[in-house]
Amino acid sequence: MKKSALQKARAAYQPKLPIVLTGAVKAVEGKATNSVADQEDIQKLFPNTYGLPEIHFEKGPAVKSAPINVGVILSGGQAPGGHNVISGLFDGIKKVNRDSRLYGFLMGPGGFVDHKYMELTASYIDEYRNTGGFDIIGSGRTKLETKAQFDKGLEILKELNIKALVIIGGDDSNTNAAILAEYYKSINAGVQVIGCPKTIDGDLKNEMIETSFGFDTATKVYSEVIGNIQRDCNSSKKYWHFIKLMGRSASHIALECALQCQPNVCIISEEVEAKKETLNDIVNSIADVVAARAANGNNFGSVLIPEGLIEFIPAMKALIAELNDLLADNAEEFAKIDRQNQLSWIVDRLSSENASIFNSLPEGVARQLCLDRDPHGNVQVSLIETEKLLGEMVGRRLNEMKAEGRYVGKFASMFHFFGYEGRCADPSNFDADYCYALGFNAACLINAGVTGYMSSVRGLTKPSVQWTTGGIPITMMMNMERRHGAMKPVIQKALVRLDGAPFLKYAAQRDTWAINTDFIYPGPIQYFGPAEVCDQPSLTLRYEHENR
């Protein structure tokens, strides 16, 4: 593999492992756990893996352990640091016994079901340490949810004598890990299943999972580019930039980037839902900021928009929920409808209130709401051009305000969507350390003999050598949600808390940012230099922990 000078330098970086993991460890059990909601339903579905205790690791006596074969899967969308999770896992099982072996299933869960794999050797893994992407074994979005898949996967596990499987993924992938762990436990398959928390969206977290890996790097990448745009914006002084950011189910990315860059407007989906705002409410609030800045001679600015905003507008959320059920129940019939008749077919089958809202949408947006659902039954919000919708509606509203004598200025808009740009960046020092620790910690969970657990590394605002490690039962994070028209157990997404420190920090300053040009230009991720420049975690994480 050819490498740039930066890649060569990064290959030599040694992630800083928590001290507790540098020697022999023992697993210490804490209190028994319950799911975050729907306890009775979750317990019935997971009788063998529900109510397990929290675990933390302490220094322990050296114990001779037999070699173990482990499998690993990268599941779902990419996130910076995945290669370091695998590197940490490899080093961890080799530390237990140098004859242990690691097998990677290719292109995600599909490779597990289809028996496509490769052994990951030291020389191969060394090529990928501290690099971005998931190309070490590839990833995929195949859902592990049927007995047939579990049994087919078990065939290759037995053939390779694999006793533990690590699934690196987001909330849906780790939900599937919990289901797989429950099934293998119920049939005494002798296979442990361990999860690792991955998603740049930042919505897989709780007190024991303080952040998901990749969030730190991705938001720093986006913040760099937003800063560049704001610098350009402040140089030409003639454009309003509408910037949509990844984060389909939560606004953590938009909020972090706002804290990093201080834009004129940042919409937080969770606040929109809490205030029961309409699409027109959002448009009017942006138009008011544009007009206020124009009154000061500033016909330029920046607006940050979370990817999943459309689903948080209460009226749109109700419409999408009905659309999801309608299209799930009538998928074959809808597929046969001519394109020119699709929208009328939908309107005829919606409730009167939702039909009225659907009819009021621009045709392009209405069609985007009807696109094929993702593998989890969700509308593909990344394909909905919310940034253009808002920009065009703001332009129309400003024309109305100008006719009313309430706006004197020029309005020109530009549109951006930052998503894939951040998913495969070389991990920041924080993510490089965090991911390596998550993988090494997963090896310790395997050695402890547990199943149905997620690797947990905590105390993340401290220097990495002081982080604490352990695991939590995945069922602890679960609740029941409607998917594909039926109630299913899933890990509960962590949304932006409107009473949380990060949002309150933003809310206290946003009125000033709206009128003034207080842009910050964060610049690129720094890998080499003083810790206060290179090793700092996200502002979200720092604010969440500053009073603990």
From TrEMBL:
UniProt-annotated binding residues for diphosphate: 77
Activity control: Non-allosteric.
Site (Important for catalytic activity): 198
Binding-site residues for substrate, renumbered to this chain: 199-201, 238-239, 246-248, 307, 420-423
Pfam families listed in its UniProt record: PFK
Subcellular localization: Cytoplasm
UniProt keyword terms in alphabetical order: Cytoplasm, Glycolysis, Kinase, Magnesium, Metal-binding, Transferase
Coiled-coil segments: none
Family, as annotated: Belongs to the phosphofructokinase type A (PFKA) family. PPi-dependent PFK group II subfamily. Clade 'Long' sub-subfamily.
Subunit and partners: Homodimer.
Protein name: Pyrophosphate--fructose 6-phosphate 1-phosphotransferase
Origin species: Muribaculum gordoncarteri
